[in-house]
Design a protein that fits this description.
This protein is an alpha+beta fold and 477 residues long. Helices cover 43% and strands 19% of the residues. Strands 8, 9, 10, 12 and 14 form a five-stranded antiparallel beta sheet that branches. Helix 3 packs antiparallel against helix 17, helix 7 packs across helix 8 and helix 7 packs across helix 9. The longest helix is centred in the middle third of the chain and has 30 residues. The structure holds iron/sulfur cluster (2 copies). One iron/sulfur cluster binds next to helix 14 and helix 15. The site of one iron/sulfur cluster has 15 residues, from helix 14 and helix 15.
């Protein structure tokens, strides 16, 4: 295992091993710990800028409120979701399903065109690992080679100090991440209660807080790149999503091969790759990108920066490793709209249109009114005909509301059992039974359609069509 770790550090990966094994496992099946060299360069600097913005958004969003309600909340426990200030309840599940489906198709389309750009630039795992935890590690323990030496050194006060301070900082950051994660689920107000009130009043919340912190600490202090290689389904789906037209971090083998060490004073007879191994040394997943696109590559751009630096030093043109498709490198084709891209785009557009239509027609209150199952009409003493109905009303807003029913287009009365108005709390489903009495002279047939309006004060919020039955005209008194 040590030999493999050293090989990655020296940029001397076995040239054929990538075909039948992954980079972070040695021949005996043990994990190979990766000590990547500190990355630097243009792409890395841009990734720092993007990471700072995304981290500010991630940590800031739970604090944003609109009219006292969270801007974003994914409360799976209470099945309450707020997205961009809009509340979604379990009744809106079909919209969620459509959004989820659109997202999956979008990911397929985006990956087919741009490869794993998401992994390198926007994935929280990569951002936290490479831009937060790894940077702290470099700061405390030094560059990759120094970390390797420190891990093999005898225990000393210096080693204890470095290791302890690193892990204390790692756990503290994991605690902040864990709390933020929890804030997205239960809301920032609930989180503050867990933090400020006695623990015994929030045993469950407190347990989750510690659990999430421990989980993130484990991921970033120990599990690391294995999350991308073994766990992340997106990474594992690359082989079906990428094609020769996809833009990925790629080594220009036409220009680079045959690789060969730089010979000073002699005319360079080989390709542009001087086999310095720097692209392997900086790779956080320990692969050699010169072997082609691999499952482990998270498109972090570290090898692009490293190689550009080398090319700059030896006076050759940059971009030997760059964002490029296989077709671009081999045939010079910049981009082709393939049938796959057209297909994904068409399905995505259709799904987005349907989702938008559902979103626009979505009501704050959802009502279903049906004639009570198995009930018949009743002829009253004053000659009116009575039908019985059941209503189900769901309040999808943040506020409690009172509603009442009115007949829309026929004379008559509605009597709700026991009350004049129905009180419906937020996210509450209220079931009610009511009676509709209509004078005989207003009923021309024995089966008519009537509209029942649901009013909040004087405002009509919903109008439901239902059926009303009466005795046949000849059979009436
Ligand atoms: S950094 Fe560039 S020159 Fe050096 S080994 Fe990698 S591809 Fe070749
Ligand atoms: S091969 Fe290059 S882009 Fe891919 S993970 Fe390694 S360093 Fe990052």
């Amino acid at each position: 295992m040590i030999a493999d770790e050293k090989k990655i550090q020296n940029g001397e990966k076995d040239q054929e091993s990538f075909r039948d094994s992954i980079s972070i496992i040695d021949k005996s099946g043990k994990r190979v710990w990766v000590y990547p060299k500190k990355p630097k360069g243009k792409y890395h600097n841009w990734r720092i800028v993007v990471s700072v913005i995304l981290l500010a958004v991630l940590f800031g969003v739970p604090f944003i409120k609109i009219d006292g309600h969270p801007f974003f909340l994914l409360n799976i426990v209470e099945r309450k979701f707020i997205i961009f200030g809009l509340a979604f309840w379990p009744q809106d599940f079909y919209i969620f399903a459509l959004v989820f489906l659109s997202l999956v198709i979008f990911i397929f389309l985006f990956t087919t065109v741009f490869g794993r750009i998401w992994c390198g630039w926007a994935c929280p795992q990569t951002i936290f690992m490479e831009m937060v935890f790894r940077k702290i590690e470099y700061w405390i323990e030094g560059d990759g080679a120094e970390q390797y030496k420190l891990n093999r050194a005898e225990m000393s006060p210096d080693k204890i100090l470095k290791k302890t301070s690193k892990h204390v900082i790692f756990f503290s950051i994991s605690f902040v991440i864990g709390n933020t994660f929890l804030a997205y689920i239960i809301g920032i107000d609930e989180l503050f209660k867990i933090i400020t009130e006695p623990v015994q009043e929030h045993i469950v919340g407190f347990s989750f807080m510690i659990g999430f912190s421990g989980l993130f600490y484990f991921i970033f202090a120990s599990f690391r790149e294995q999350a991308c290689i073994y766990v992340c389904p997106y990474g594992r789906l690359q082989s079906v999503m990428l094609d020769k037209n996809s833009i990925v971090v790629a080594y220009d083998f036409k220009r680079g091969e045959p690789r060969g060490k730089l010979k000073h004073g002699a005319e360079n007879q080989s390709g542009d790759c001087i086999d310095c191994g720097l692209c392997v040394q900086v790779c956080p997943t320990g692969i050699d990108i010169r072997n082609g696109t691999q499952l482990e590559c998270v498109n972090c751009t570290a090898c692009m920066d490293a190689c550009d630096g080398i090319m700059d030093k030896i006076g050759r043109s940059k971009k030997l490793i760059r964002y490029a498709s296989f077709d671009l490198i081999t045939k010079g084709i910049t981009f082709t709209v393939t049938p796959r891209i057209v297909g994904y785009s068409a399905v995505l557009l259709l799904l987005m249109a349907v989702t938008t239509a559902f979103m626009l027609t979505r009501k704050d209150i959802e009502t279903t009114i049906l004639r009570a199952k198995g009930s018949m009409y009743q002829v009253l003493e004053d000659g009116k005909i009575r039908n019985m109905y059941t209503a189900k009303i769901v309040n999808k807003t943040f506020d409690a509301m009172t509603v009442h029913f009115e007949l829309e287009d026929v004379p008559g009365t509605i009597t709700v059992a026991g009350v004049d108005q129905l009180l419906i709390r937020p996210d509450e489903l209220v079931e009610s039974t009511f009676l509709v009495d209509i004078p005989q002279e207003a009923i021309k047939q024995n089966h008519i359609k009537i509209n029942i309006g649901v009013y909040r004060g004087n405002t009509l919020i919903s109008s439901e069509e239902t059926s009303f039955i009466a005795p046949a005209k000849g059979a009436r008194k």
